[in-house]
Write a structure and sequence with these properties.
Subunit structure: Homodimer.
Shape: globular
Distance between the termini: 17 Å
GO molecular function, one term: beta-ketoacyl-acyl-carrier-protein synthase III activity
Strand content: 25-35%
Number of strands: 13
Radius of gyration: 18 Å
Mean pLDDT: 94
Number of domains: 2
CATH topology of the largest domain: Peroxisomal Thiolase, Chain A, domain 1
Subcellular location: Cytoplasm
Largest sheet: 5 strands, mixed
InterPro entries: ACP_syn_III_C, ACP_syn_III_N, FabH, Thiolase-like
Number of helices: 10
Order of helices and strands: EEHHEHEHEHEHEEEEHEHHHEE
CATH class of the largest domain: Alpha Beta
Low-confidence stretches: none
Bound molecules: acetyl coenzyme *A
Helix content: 25-40%
CATH superfamily of the largest domain: Thiolase/Chalcone synthase
Catalytic activity: malonyl-[ACP] + acetyl-CoA + H(+) = 3-oxobutanoyl-[ACP] + CO2 + CoA
């Protein structure tokens, strides 16, 4: 039986930092409001496009895997802030890294995109259709945020993360996965644009509509159901789990989920204070940093949970 081993991981965080205090210089907001409600202290702002962030994360993950890009047979980029709709971000990455043998597509399930990509890539490897796949979550949300709207402007940031998955006979990687969509809640989180904003010199802002408290409830419900599903698939329980790595949208929401799933103290990956919500990039960045800081070690069992507009949800059991 084939498995999809995670052989490389990498991230890209643009160097420009925007703190809560910086935001308070031009918005009616404060660190005292933002920090306790969201867990966010600062976020990064990119001056380059999503495909460039994706490319840097990809190069780091390939170096970590010690893999020649020519050996890749598929690249999937999870993003909802593609520089252009056509051609996709994945083809820009393919060209930039010289992965001429790889198919390339973007996938949009909002903040759940990277996990959805991991689900697809793992399925492709486990069925034998693919052997070496690069998956990326990359976003440049600050490009389209309405900087006059404090409700949304304080929540998001830019960044990218990537993983290399390779076929192996050893039992590891994404062992169980559940993805779902609660379309009744389709309207509670919407970013209303359909054009390729960079190419057409778009310099306006997108109406960002969201109902924070409804998202909170639906996200916790969707993620805990998905977590229960993957526990059932594997016969594992929280006692077998070494770490929870969730989508970083809000610290209160993560704390709530961790409590519901009975995750022991100190086992939950949190980096939202540094980067805010980078949408599909939060998960691969969180994985990379969980390894850097020693929360995750070789052989560990990880449970991951995500949610995003749609309202999409997902959870997985990953053996590192
Ligand atoms: N600074 C100061 N005041 C603010 C700010 C701000 N940045 N934003 C809103 N307020 C004010 C509002 O105007 C409102 O004032 P009022 O009571 O006088 O009308 C008050 O604060 C409360 O606003 P709410 O929107 O009700 O704030 P809430 O307590 O719901 O917190 C939050 C908002 C943090 C977004 C919360 O709903 C939440 O955690 N939601 C889940 C996460 C989420 O929705 N993330 C965005 C989508 S992202 C994703 O990853 C899919």
């Amino acid at each position: 039986e084939k498995y999809a081993e995670i052989t490389g991981w990498g991230k890209c965080l643009p160097p420009a930092v925007l703190t809560n205090d910086d935001l308070a210089t031009f918005l009616d907001t404060s660190d005292e409001w933002i920090k306790p409600r969201t867990g966010i202290s600062e976020r990064r702002v990119s001056h380059v496009g999503t495909s460039e962030l994706a490319t840097v994360a990809a190069r780091n993950a390939l170096a970590c895997a010690d893999l020649d890009p020519k050996e890749l047979d598929l690249i999937i980029v999870g993003t909802c802030t593609a520089d252009e709709i056509i051609p996709n971000v994945a083809s820009a990455v393919q060209r930039n890294i010289g992965a001429s043998g790889a198919a390339a597509y973007d996938l949009n399930a909002a903040c759940s995109s990277f996990f959805y990509a991991m689900h697809n890539a793992t399925a492709g490897i486990r069925t034998g259709m693919h052997k070496k796949v690069l998956i990326i979550g990359a976003e440049r949300l600050t490009r389209i945020l309405d900087w006059t709207k404090r409700e949304s402007a304080v929540l998001f940031g830019d960044g990218a993360g990537a993983m290399v998955l390779e076929a192996t006979d050893e039992e590891c990687g994404l062992l169980a996965s559940k993805i779902s969509c609660d379309s009744d809640a389709r309207d509670v989180l919407a970013l209303d644009f359909g054009l390729s904003f960079d190419r057409y010199n778009f310099d306006g802002v997108m109406p960002f509509n969201f109902e924070g408290q409804e998202i909170f409830k639906r996200a916790v419900k969707g993620m805990s159901a998905a977590v229960e599903d993957v526990f059932q698939q594997t016969g594992l329980t929280m006692d077998d789990v070494d770490a929870l790595i969730p989508h970083q949208a809000n610290k209160r929401l993560i704390d709530f989920l961790a409590k519901m799933c009975k995750v022991p103290e100190g086992k939950t990956m949190l980096n939202i204070h540094k980067y805010g919500n980078t949408s599909s990039a939060t998960l691969p960045i969180a994985f990379a940093e969980a390894i850097e800081n020693g929360l995750v070690k070789p052989g560990d069992t990880i449970v991951s949970a995500v949610f995003g507009g749609g309202l999409t949800c997902g959870a997985g059991i990953i053996k590192w």
